[in-house]
Every structure is written in C-alpha cells, then in structure tokens.
C-alpha cells in the first residue's frame, strides 16, 4: 500500500508509521510538529519507503501534496484534550474541523480509496449507558467532543455523496510509549508516571472513582491495520450482517469503538502505576496522591462495547489495561528518568 498518515510524528501517528513502514508499505507522514515531535520518527527518515512532510492540515495545498499517489489515508492529526478545547475552542475547531474537511477534499480529489480517521469516545457525551454502543450517543460536553462528532458527520456525507470509503475509529483513552508527559494538556497516564518517577505526588481529579476504558497503543495499531486493509467487499458484507442485529432506525455508520472493553477507576489506575514503577524504585511505593476538584467537561465513566469492531473488522485486542500499564511504565522508566 501507499499510505498517508497525518499527525504521523505524534504519539499514535508515529506508532502507526512504525507499523506500516515495518511491513513494507510506502508511508507519507504529514505533521506540523505542534504537538508531535520529529524525534518520534527520526529513525524512519532516510528509509526508501518513508517520506516526511512538515506541514499543516489547515492548508489545503499541503493536504493535496500529502495524499498524492496514496490509496489509503490514516487521519490522526488533531488538537486533542477537552481542557484545551474549553480554553481555546476556535483553535480546536480550526484544526479538527477545517483541517479534517481539507483532508477529505484532498483525498476525494486524489482518488484515495479509503479514509480511516481518529474519532473519539468523547462523542458519547452525557450518555449514561455502559458499555458504550456505537449507535447510541448523548449530547457532547466540550468543544473537542463537538469537533469529533462533526468529523463523523462529514465522513458519512463524503461517503454518500462522493463514494469515498470512510472508517471512523472511536478511541478510548489511548496510552503507551511516546505519549507526551509534558505540557498543560498532558494525558493522565504519562503525567502521573512522570510525577511518580520524580517523587512528586500526582493530582487525582474528584474522588478517584471516575473510570475509563484505558486502551494500550498496540490495540489501536491493530485496529488501524485492519481498517486500512480489509477488502471493501468483506467490509460491506460484514456491515450488512452486523446491521441486521440493530434496532429499527439505528444509524448504520462505519464507526467503531477501539478499546479493550474494560473499566478502570482513577484510584485503581494510580495504584497500578505506582506498583509497576516501584519495581524500579521502591521509594515510589510510599507516594500518596493529592485529590482535587473534578475537571470541567469530563464524563464520569467510559467503557466500550467492542462487538461491532470484532464482527466487522476482525478486531481482537491483545492487551488488557494491566498488561499495557506494565509495558508503558517500563518504557517511561527507560526513557524519562
């Protein structure tokens, strides 16, 4: 295959670049390095089947250059973080909606056969239902969640109007090697790991009973690999079969939860990270967290049903949260300290 991976120097994108370059595909990586880092892909630069373009998805000409000759696009570029979107909704909208539309248009015009994009569990909004099932969502609780929902709507319209195959992958709290622990909008796992390694007490928002379906990066790479390579005939036949199980009137969208299907409270997460890291440094076992107020825009609980991905894509995640936490802690210990 010839693929374009946007946001390819970021946490998820660079892991995808590693996977596809490693299996011999030709990869063009597009990243403006605003939240990604060149050191994440430095080991790939110079390889004959890898090309890096430093550019911004908000520029349509750059998008056209990036997708030229590609038959599959993996669109990972976005401004993540609910708090970031609350503080600066205009910038989040420009990147996540304007940039997304630019990539859709460029892909359509270049004759790309399939457009796989990073959707988000934030789309479920205020829905109280557990586990989260793709065809039932609530009202979004942040500008970031709105942008990710709009992405799904745009993708569906481009499929209906222009025949561009689109597949949305709703990520649930992805973590693992290369997730940045620095900055005001760092995700919880690298943030806490960094604090513990430096013997600083991490902050837990609320009482620690909020829970998440933490998803190790290897599971996300597997889902993208399947979404990029499943033959069209198989994809559509499997979807038709799955749709027969849905209630009347439920959306028939090519959107899939990407998670393990588990549920870990913040308190349990803290204990697990502390226990894993204390194997390297026994002093970490004595560090106590500091509790503070809940964060605006956060949902209390998140857990995915992954049955649709299993039935349609053949998704079969190998890493539960505990196995992922152990691998991530070892990576951070070797790369952060």
What does this structure look like?
The chain is an alpha/beta fold. The protein is built from 11 helices and 13 strands. The protein has helices at 11-22, 60-67, 82-87, 89-110, 143-162, 188-197, 217-229, 232-243, 266-278, 307-313, 321-336, and strands spanning 2-6, 26-31, 50-54, 72-75, 114-120, 165-171, 174-175, 203-205, 211-212, 215-216, 255-258, 264-265, 290-292. A 7-stranded parallel β-sheet has the order 3-2-1-4-5-6-11, sandwiched between helices. Strand 1, helix 1 and strand 2 (26-31) form a beta-alpha-beta unit. The mean pLDDT is 96.
Helix and strand layout, with pairings?
Blueprint: E1 2-6, H1 11-22, E2 26-31, E3 50-54, H2 60-67, E4 72-75, H3 82-87, H4 89-110, E5 114-120, H5 143-162, E6 165-171, E7 174-175, H6 188-197, E8 203-205, E9 211-212, E10 215-216, H7 217-229, H8 232-243, E11 255-258, E12 264-265, H9 266-278, E13 290-292, H10 307-313, H11 321-336
Parallel strand pairs: 1-2, 1-4, 2-3, 4-5, 5-6, 6-11, 7-10, 8-13
Antiparallel strand pairs: 9-12
Helix pairs in contact: 1-7, 2-4, 4-5, 6-9, 6-11, 8-10, 9-11
């Amino acid at each position: 295959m010839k693929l374009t991976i946007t946001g390819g120097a970021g946490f998820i994108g660079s892991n995808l670049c590693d996977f596809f370059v490693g299996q011999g595909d030709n990869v063009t990586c597009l990243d403006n390095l605003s939240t990604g880092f060149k050191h994440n892909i430095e080991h790939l630069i110079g390889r004959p089947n890898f090309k890096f373009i430093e550019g911004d998805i908000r520029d349509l000409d750059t998008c056209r250059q990036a997708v030229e000759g590609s038959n599959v696009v993996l669109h990972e570029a976005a401004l993540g973080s609910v708090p970031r979107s609350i503080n600066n909704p205009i910038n989040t909208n420009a990147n996540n909606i304007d940039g997304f539309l630019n990539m859709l248009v460029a892909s359509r015009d270049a004759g790309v056969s399939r457009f796989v994009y990073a959707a988000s569990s934030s789309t479920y909004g205020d829905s109280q239902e557990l586990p989260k099932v793709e065809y039932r969502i609530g009202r979004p609780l942040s500008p970031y969640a709105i942008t990710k929902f709009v992405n799904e709507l745009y993708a569906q319209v481009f499929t209906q109007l222009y025949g561009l195959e689109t597949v949305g992958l709703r990520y649930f709290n992805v973590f693992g090697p290369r997730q940045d622990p620095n900055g005001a909008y760092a995700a919880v796992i690298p943030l806490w790991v960094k604090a513990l390694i430096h013997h600083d007490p991490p902050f837990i928002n609320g009482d620690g009973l909020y829970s998440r379906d933490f998803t190790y990066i290897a599971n996300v790479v597997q889902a993208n690999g399947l979404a990029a390579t499943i033959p069209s005939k198989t994809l559509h036949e499997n979807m038709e079969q799955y749709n027969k199980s849905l209630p009347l009137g439920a959306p028939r969208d090519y959107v899939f939860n990407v998670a393990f299907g588990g549920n870990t409270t913040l308190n349990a997460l803290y204990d697990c990270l502390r226990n894993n890291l204390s194997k390297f440094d026994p002093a970490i076992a004595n560090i106590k967290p500091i509790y503070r107020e809940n964060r605006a825009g956060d949902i209390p609980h998140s857990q995915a049903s992954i049955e649709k991905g299993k039935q349609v894509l053949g998704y079969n995640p190998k890493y539960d949260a505990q196995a992922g936490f152990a691998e991530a802690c070892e990576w951070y210990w070797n790369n952060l300290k």
